[in-house]
Design brief:
The chain has 180 residues and is of the alpha+beta class. It has 4 helices and 10 strands; from the N terminus they run βαβαββαββββββα. The chain has helices at 22-33, 50-53, 93-110, 157-161; strands at residues 9-11, 41-44, 70-73, 80-86, 120-124, 129-134, 140-142, 144-145, 148-149, 153-155. It starts with 8 loop residues before the first strand and ends in a 19-residue tail after the last helix.
């Protein structure tokens, strides 16, 4: 009797059709990401490190600090690995992804050279989940697993811990299947 194989992705989208509003989409995303299968520590609006929380860029021109919807941390980590933005079902997921990208890129501009800043951006609207990776060259590339672009599922924390190449490919240990 061997252990069950580890699944590389946790299914996030689509949510049940009756979940339509942004607050409900967010609650369901949190529940799935905090599950034992996914293994993330999920924080809302702030990660708890002043260095990071005081420099999130604003999405408006009002000058106030930005507040990302969700910050995904690996277990025993203090810095987020992913910035996650939610929208209602009537809003295209690319809008949420663009907002998450804004936060990630802005954080890197505000803290150049700071190690272990988040590089994964996620945009979710209840119907679809889109992911991108911000590489060291400052370019956005699709997040990939086993050669395929990851969509509607999110990599388990153990995979993200193994790293992501500059082309957006998740480094996969041999004991985990390579296909999404």
């Amino acid at each position: 009797f061997g252990a069950a194989p580890v699944k590389p992705l946790v299914t996030i989208a689509p949510l049940p059709a009756e979940i339509t509003g942004e607050p409900d989409v967010e609650v369901e995303a949190i529940n799935r990401l905090r599950s034992l299968a996914a293994g993330y520590v999920v924080k809302q609006r702030k990660c708890g490190l002043e260095l990071i929380d005081k420099v999130w860029p604003s999405k408006s021109s009002g000058g106030q600090m930005g507040k990302p919807d969700l910050l995904l941390l690996l277990p025993n980590s203090k810095k987020p690995a992913c910035v996650w933005e939610n929208k209602d079902r009537g809003t295209n997921a690319t809008v949420a992804l663009d907002e998450a990208k804004h936060y990630v890129a802005g954080l890197h501009r505000a803290l150049p050279g700071e190690p272990a800043l988040p590089r994964v951006a996620a945009g979710f609207n209840g119907s679809e989940l889109l992911l991108s990776f911000y590489n060291n060259e400052g370019a956005w590339v699709p997040l990939k697993l086993g050669g395929a672009v990851v969509k509607d599922g999110f990599p388990v924390a153990g995979l993200i811990r193994n790293g992501i190449s500059s082309t957006g490919t998740i480094n996969v240990p041999s004991e985990i299947p390579h296909s999404p």
